[in-house]
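We were asked to recover a plausible sequence for a given structure. The inputs and outputs are reproduced exactly as logged, with field labels preserved.

PROBLEM: sequence recovery
POSITIONS: 274
GIVEN STRUCTURE:
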């Protein structure tokens, strides 16, 4: 992993994310019940809870996939609840997915270039005719893809079709593609799910390096409590769509409601640290 990756453009000075009284209902089922939390600029904030707690629903509201029934999500001065996903992405919000969402037949480079799409200024005609402005822009995007690939340890894999890569490497590609969007807020949906112990440790180190290098805000959904304890500045705990606790990780893991709902009767040890 290279240490030369630096922020570009919108990655500077991330605004605060404020989730206030967000409720989501599906055909009478309440998936989120007036939840609220704040992600401070430049911090790592984890959302945890058992299966069915509403974590993925929360992410889908923040990224515009679901529309909140009630409540507010503000990213700086922007209200996100009425915006389409592409408009939220344009504000500097990028996400990864629990299930890998890459194009397996495309190379790593081509998948990363897809992440640059929202930053492309050249029009369809200019790109099709390969006008000088379009060629210059393509060169700049290509150089940026090379930098990000080197940062996440993919420099030697750029020509490889994603579908031929090991699972853990594919998760790195997905993170790299999100970084290619130059985010100010990065939503990571279970970034170490399905990984072995070594891969989890490497991904944890990479997430820390991203936060340190860019200073962006990171909102993390994760079941691996060792990773949460290592990475998060603040934790929000959901259970059956309700917020039951929030605060620093050491405080949250000792909360009786959290122990009952998520960590189990044995207490706050959770899973082994990555």
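RECOVERED SEQUENCE:
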């Amino acid at each position: 992993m290279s240490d030369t990756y630096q922020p570009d453009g919108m990655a500077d000075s991330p605004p605060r994310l404020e989730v206030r009284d967000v409720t989501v209902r599906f055909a009478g089922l309440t998936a989120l019940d007036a939840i609220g939390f704040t992600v401070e600029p430049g911090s790592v904030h984890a959302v945890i809870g058992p299966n069915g707690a509403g974590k993925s629903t929360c992410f889908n509201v923040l990224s515009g996939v679901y529309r909140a029934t009630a409540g507010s999500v503000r990213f700086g001065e922007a209200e996100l609840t009425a915006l389409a996903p592409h408009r939220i992405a344009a504000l500097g919000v990028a996400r990864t997915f629990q299930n890998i969402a890459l194009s397996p037949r495309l190379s790593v480079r081509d998948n990363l270039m897809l992440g640059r799409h929202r930053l492309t200024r050249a029009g369809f005609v200019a790109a099709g005719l390969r006008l000088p402005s379009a060629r210059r822009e393509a060169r700049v995007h290509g150089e940026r893809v090379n930098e990000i690939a080197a940062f996440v340890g993919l420099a030697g894999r750029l020509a490889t079709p994603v579908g031929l890569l090991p699972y853990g490497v594919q998760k790195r590609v997905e993170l790299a593609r999100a970084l290619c969007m130059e985010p100010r807020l990065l939503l990571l949906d279970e970034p170490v799910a399905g990984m072995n112990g070594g891969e989890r440790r490497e991904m944890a180190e990479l997430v820390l390096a991203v936060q340190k290098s860019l200073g962006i805000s990171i909102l993390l959904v994760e079941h691996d409590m060792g990773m949460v304890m290592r990475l998060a500045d603040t934790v929000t705990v959901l259970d059956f769509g309700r917020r039951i606790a929030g605060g620093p990780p050491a405080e949250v893991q000792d909360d009786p409601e959290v122990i009952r709902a998520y960590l189990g009767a044995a207490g706050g040890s959770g899973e082994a640290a990555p």
